[in-house]
Amino acid sequence: MSQQSSIARRPDFVPEDWLRCTRGFSFTSPPPAELRADRHLESANPWEQLLCVTLQAQAGDFRHADRLVRLAMSESDSHLRDSAITVFGLCAPSIQLTRMGDVFHHPDYDTRLEAYAAACLTGSLAVAELLAEQRTQVRGYERERVMDHLNSMLEPEDSEPVLIDSPLPDAAFVATVREMTQALRKLYGDQPAIFHGEPLTVEKLAAAIASLCAQDEPEQYGGIIAQLLSLIEAMTGVPYAGCLDDDCDPVLPAISHTLNSLRQSGLLAGLQPGRRYFFGHLIP
Predict the structure, then answer these.
(1) Are 149 and 127 in contact (CB under 8 A)?
(2) CA dist 265 → 73, 237, 238 (Å)
C-alpha cells in the first residue's frame, strides 16, 4: 500500500495518475476480485470503499454509487475526492445525479472545479440546471469553467455559443439554461443523456476526437480529447491509457488504434442513443 494519510491508503495497483488526464480507469495490475464484496463498503480505508463501488459498477451493480458523494465531501485526500466525484458522475443512477450539487458547495476550490467537470460527464439536464444556479455563486475562473461545461452539455458544436463568457445577468442566464433544458426535454424525453445539445452516443464522441486530432495543432485540444476519451472508456470499458502523454498532449497513433479497435469491436451496436452506460452496462 502507498501511504496517503493515517487512514486513506491508495493500493499499489492504483497508479498515481488513476482517473487523471493520462490514465483513465486502467490499473497497474488487476484488483482483487474480492474487493467487490459489500463488506469493503465499511472499510476503514476510504480508498477501498471507492474501489468497491467502482468495481461493483463496472460489473453492472449501481446500488452504492451515492456513497461516493460522502467520500467526496468528507475525505482530505484530494486524489480520492476527485476520483470519487468522477466515478459518481459517470456511473450514478439518474435519480441520484442531482446530489452532484452537494459537491458544488465543497469548501475546496479545486474540488469544486472537479465537480463541474464531472457534472458535464453526467449528460443530465437536471444537473445542468444546478450548474447554472452555481454560476450565481462564483466569480472569476470558476465562473468561466461553469459556463464552459454548460456549453459542452447543452449547445451544439456547430452553433454560435451563447453560454461561454456570457454577459447575461445571473437570473437571465439561469432562465436561458432552463429554456434550453426544457426544449431538449420536449425533443428527447425527461431523462436523456445529452452532450452538446444532442443525445449522447459513442459514435459522436469518437467522431469529435477524430476531428480534433486532424487539426493543425491537436495538442491544443488535449483537455477536450481527454474528456471525450474518458466518456468513451466509461461507457464501453475500452481503455485509453497511452492515448495522452504526461503533458496531456494527444498521442495520435494510439488514439487512432483505440478508435479503430472500438469501431471493430461490435460494442457500439448495443448502445442506445441518449442512454448512459458504464462499462457496457445500462445505468438505471
Answers:
(1) no
(2) 38, 12, 10
Q: Which three cell numbers stand for residue 210?
A: 477524430
Instruction: Give the global pTM.
Output: 0.94
Residue 131 banded pLDDT, cuts 50, 70, 90: very high
What are the boundaries of each domain within the chain? Answer: 1-98, 123-200, 201-264
CB of 8 within 8 A of CB of 46?
Answer: yes
Looking at residue 39, its amino acid is R
Selection from 252, 133, 153 nearest residue 193 by Cα: 153
Closest CA relative to residue 153, chosen from 233, 231, 62: 231
58-59-65 Cα angle (round to 5):
60
* Per-residue pLDDT tens digits for 84-119: 999 999 999 999 999 999 999 999 999 999 999 999
Helix axes 252-265, 222-236, angle to 10 degrees: 30
Which is nearest to 137 in space by CA: 109, 118, 95, 176?
109
Residue for cell digits 441520484? 96
DSSP state letters, 36-103: GSGGGGG-SSHHHHHHHHHHHHHTT--TTTTHHHHHHHH-S-HHHHHHHHHHHHHHS-GGGGGGHHHH
CA distances from 37 to 7, 137, 216 (A): 20, 40, 48
pLDDT in tens, 224-248: 999 999 999 999 999 999 999 999 9
Could you give the residue ranges of the DSSP H alpha helices within 136-221? 140-154, 170-188, 202-213
